Every structure is written in structure tokens, then in C-alpha cells.
Fold this sequence. Notes:
Blueprint: E1 3-8, H1 16-30, E2 34-37, H2 50-56, H3 60-70, E3 74-78, E4 81-82, E5 85-86, H4 88-98, E6 102-103, E7 106-107, E8 115-121, H5 129-141, E9 145-153, H6 169-189
Helix pairs in contact: 1-6
The chain binds flavin mononucleotide (FMN).
Amino acid sequence: MVKILVIPGSNRSGSYNVKLAAAAAKELALLGADVTRISLIDYPLPLYDEDQKVSDGIHKNALKLAEMISVHDGVFIASPEYNSSISPLLKNTIDWISIIRKKDDKPWTPLKGKIVGLGAASPGNLGGVRGINHLRDVLVSVGCQVISEQTLVPTAGKAFAEDGSLIAERAVRSLSNSCQSLFRVSQALG
Length: 190
Ligand SMILES: Cc1cc2nc3c(=O)[nH]c(=O)nc-3n(C[C@H](O)[C@H](O)[C@H](O)COP(=O)(O)O)c2cc1C
């Protein structure tokens, strides 16, 4: 069974990206994936500090997240846009995981080759496209295989129903395409 990890890049209560992550998880489950949806609230990490890493080692929550990523074939990230770029929460999380090189004294780079699908929800008209493009660059730079299809949810305040489901038609179609591609590529290469 194809295993997909779904990560919202926001911990905000009422987050549009948490809702987008939930919609992606539902779509992927309908395709037959074994989906795990997590919240980064459960994996708090200090702002990355090289001196702290040298003195204390790699943070246990970075190692836990790395383990979660490595046991899944693919990952879906729903990413907020901050000042036209990646959210600090996601960047910090990726930075921590990207420095992992070993497990049980054997080489281990959990992000290398990982299949990743991206989505973004934003109250603005651009739907977070600038942030998602930066996120794509960051993930590619650490060795992830980011699929081409991506989902943008502009004017996110109107895109979700009261129960949290995604109702904006274009975004629904786009999410379906993104999830199908993530599922297929994860199945083939994950
Ligand atoms: C510091 C900061 C910068 C932001 N910059 C942008 C931006 O460049 N583009 C945008 O569409 N929204 C921007 N926003 C608004 C976020 O998209 C909005 O807060 C959104 O709800 C965050 O995602 P979430 O709902 O998943 O928490 C910014 C918000 C903050 C706090």
C-alpha cells in the first residue's frame, strides 16, 4: 500500500493550510493511499542554531519527523505564504531535518529522493504561488523529488465550507490532479 504523509505548514488555529491538508488527506485516502496526517504542533523545534546543534546534537523532534518521512513513500505539504516566501515554521523544520546524515552510525538522508506534492492556501488572490515556488526550490535543494502538479487555493476565506471541506471548484479539480500525481509517482518510485 502507498503510504503518504500529509503535513500542514501552519499551526494556526483555523489555518487554511490545515484545512487544505485535511482535504488532501481525504483525496489521497480515496485513491487508496494509507495516509498519515500530522501537525507540527506535536514536533516543536527551536530556531535552528548551529552552536546548539553542536552542543546538544540533532533535536529529537527533527529525528522523529525524519523517521516519519522515511517510512512514507510520499509527502504532501500545505504551505502558507509569508512575505512572498516560505513560512518560518516550514523552513525551520526543513533546515533541522536536512542536516541529518546518519542513523545507527549508517549514512541516512531522509529527504533525499523523497516524493513531495505541494499545495498552498492564502487569503490573497495569488493563492500562495510565490511561497510555494520558494518551497519547491528549497525541497529540490535538499534532494526531494517535487512533482510538477501543485494546488493553489486563492481567496481561501471563501474556498472552504463551514465544515472545513474545500468547495472552490478550481481548487478542488487542482487538488484532485495533484493527489493523483503524488499517488502515482509515490507508487512507482516511493
Ligand atoms: C508575516 C506575514 C506575512 C504574510 N505574507 C503574505 C504573502 O506574502 N502573501 C499572502 O498571500 N499572504 C501573506 N500573509 C497572510 C497569510 O497568507 C495568512 O495569514 C494565512 O492565513 C496563513 O496561512 P494559514 O491560514 O494556513 O495559517 C502573511 C501573513 C503574515 C503573518
